[in-house]
Amino acid sequence: MTDVFLNGKFIAADEAKVSVLDRGFVFGDGVYEVIPVYDGHCFKLKSHLERLQNSLDESRIVNPYSEKHWETVLNKLINLHLGGDQVLYIQVTRGVAARDHVFPENTNPTVFVMSNLMQVVPVKYKKNGISAISLKDSRWQRCNIKSTSLLPNCLLKQQAKDAGAEEALLISDGYLTEGSTSNAYAVIDGVIYTAPKSGKILAGITREVVISLASKAGIRLIEEPVAEFKLTDVDELWTSSSTKEVLPITRLNGVKVGEGIPGPVWQKIDALYQHAKAEERNDG
Ligand SMILES: Cc1ncc(COP(=O)(O)O)c(C=O)c1O
Fold it and tell me: Which residues constitute the domain of residue 30?
């Protein structure tokens, strides 16, 4: 049985127990992070820990650990899983207390970290692109918090799966916000568009990398949301996330996007992304 980290201890996953009164269980009152690990090194660790801090601050949960301590815990777990490519999952909840919506006093957060093998992105996703459907964004207005309360995202993702698609692109007030589990981009006349940071999206770490790569490559990127009615007329559509990287969407609602094949701007960004991963690995 693989080891996980729970409240200060590295223990076998089947021995790791959390109280039924944990507010993460009762209310979904917690936040999380997902960090990719390549060749035993966390990719963009600092950015992930900063976003964790931000999610905790917004949720009014005190960060139980310093950055240094998080690093120690994560590295130990990576080593227990023998390095290589992994995905770390961190969850911090407000802790165990009698059920009451009001925050408990003097309760310690519950801290859980696990590592899973990194799932290789299917070759066909990059070769042919993925398909997506557009759906009304039914989530709350504080999507910048990486909250464990993910019922809306689960419902949207399942609706995409039921329709034979890999992702749901979400529309709020007539504009594309992001995917149910990813950020979203459109390319129009060689310019990349992605929704700006706000409560309507999760500020993805992969999105941050894409923005920086586009800037270094001299590709214009504008942080502006794309109107839903324009989505039938874009050259390229993409998603990005830490576990699936940057993926081209070649069918939206059953209709070809652009030429219906992964586009040249995506090819360029994907190549740069692979390079950035390799570079950080060598630096680590
Ligand atoms: C709703 C949502 N937006 C964006 C992202 C992408 O974030 P990141 O690139 O940090 O993985 C995710 C990833 O899980 C997500 O769930």
Answer: 3-117
